[in-house]
């Protein structure tokens, strides 16, 4: 009995489609965006302020690096950056150590806190 190549190609295509759909669904379920809470974030930024709250601060380890002020920065940008440090896609040992200690909710809260800062904010570390 001869197997028809069209059937085999169609079957492989359906298997690939099903597998890719499962992968997308699993990713969407596993990495749901956490809603950030700026008020909760205020209690989680103590470790950030030590570097990001000092105007003109430069870190000297492992190399001289100008630490950016992040008050008023876009929340999504901060979230992406922290997730990239956590995954190791961004390379800075101190930030990686901090980011790996944060949950997705912590990251969302911290991002919301810094995004809510404005020059007139009372506790804005970017004044």
Task: Describe this protein's structure.
The protein has 127 residues and is mainly alpha-helical. The chain contains six helices and two strands, in the order H-H-H-E-E-H-H-H. The protein has helices at residues 5-30, 38-42, 46-52, 75-87, 93-100, 104-115; strands spanning 58-59, 65-66. It has a two-stranded antiparallel ribbon with strand order 1-2. Helix 4 packs antiparallel against helix 6. 17% of the residues are buried. Residues 1-28 form the signal peptide. Residues 36-118 form the Cytochrome c domain. Keywords: Electron transport, Heme, Iron, Metal-binding, Signal, Transport.
Structure keywords:
single chain, 127 residues, mainly alpha, Cytochrome Bc1 Complex, Chain D, domain 2, 2 domains, two-stranded antiparallel sheet, 56% helix, electron transfer activity
Helical content band = 55-70%
| Rg calc | 22 Å
- Average pLDDT confidence is 77
Return the structural class.
mainly alpha
Beta-strand percentage?
A: under 5%
How many discrete domains?
A: 2
Set out the fold topology.
Blueprint lengths: L4 H26 L7 H5 L3 H7 L5 E2 L5 E2 L8 H13 L5 H8 L3 H12 L12
Antiparallel strand pairs: 1-2
Helix pairs in contact: 4-5, 4-6
Protein name: Cytochrome c class I
GO molecular function: electron transfer activity; heme binding; metal ion binding
Organism: Candidatus Glomeribacter gigasporarum BEG34
